[in-house]
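Before surveying the methods themselves, we first show a specimen of the format, giving the amino acid sequence and backbone structure tokens:

:::
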Amino acid sequence: MSDLYETQRAMRNMRKIAMQRGLVAILDVGTSKIACLVLRFDGPKTFGQDEGIGPLAGQSAFRVIGAATTRSRGVRFGEIDAMNETERAIRTAVQAAQKMANVRVDHVIACFGGARPRSYGLDGMIEVEDSMVTENDIGRVLASCDVPDYGAGREVLHAQPVNFALDHRSGLGDPRGQMGQTLTTDLHMMTVDASVIQNLVYCIKRCDLELAGLASSAYVSGVSSLVEDEQELGAACIDMGGGATGLSIFIKKHMIYADAVRLGGDHVTGDISMALQVPLATAERLKTFYGGVHATGMDDREMIEIGGDTGDWEHDRRTVSRAELIGIMRPRVEEILEEVRVQLDAAGFEHLPSQQIVLTGGASQIPGLDGLASKILGQQVRLGRPLRVQGLPQAATGPAFSSAVGLSLFAAHPQDEWWDFDVPVDSGSSRSLKRALKWFKDNW
């Protein structure tokens, strides 16, 4: 655990240096596209300096001065599959964004999907030393959390205090400076496959860039797509990407659960390609222009020219009805939503005071998806677009850019994590682990 602690502290210092220089690049490494944004910060504002615990810790104003996307290569299920191809794609996106911004960027903050995330709910309790809660007390109570044996080959990606209680007052955002005797905390810890992180770090280093931070795509998509009330009262964000669908649950403006389904929009494209015997590029065009999940009487009569350039006149002049295309797409979309429902049930989503579900990501733009999702998930569902960010090009304001915009907000308004405090990481606790989400049922 101490190795991880030092690694994360080093990345936090890198981010601090990047913020002081005023430039940082945002890199969203996805299965279907790689997006890069170059951010300019307005002066060397505070970073993580006694500005509170939570989403408002050390804020900085920023502006997007460069943006670029390129087709992703060498990435499957949100994880690097072919190092050389991914390196070339990242270099292409970063160089195009730098050219637009007319600056050179050395530090990047990256996000990725997949990697089989797993959530844990931890709790800790200490006696306050001087009847007033200090920074040292926060570090001690975080260290008192009993870290589970999350297995070899896993690494902690996020470890965020989501609730503090002082004596009998629960739901405190920042207890520092308050009087009390017993301080308790609830911590959300998320682990991912270590090999996925190692591959991404190595790939970014090969691109001559310094890594200043890592985040889960599911988390940052929720940051950008959920409005303030949804983050406060309880909501789930479903980020439907190309190779993986991320799920994050928020309450009290903190992420309390994360998971991923290894299915996405590319699988829908693959189904069309196999069913109609057409190349993937043609299948993607058919899905984008004519796809849907609800067939009407008109769709039987609406014929779509498949097109092609095989040289076989009969083959290239084939047509398919829109109803047939929808019949190919709908089963796969239903499968993705059914998998998401299983994860929501496992997370205890029905215990939240509000149960809003927000769909975002490139694959969420299939017409009629929100109606189908509300039937399968049994909750209120809306389509989410990322928040407006100063300087963001119009082309990058759609749901496909939720992760990139959320990562920009995450860079400017960093959520305090375990390693931001002087935690004696080697101290252990004998109390048993409260597994994922047990604690929030009691507190909220």
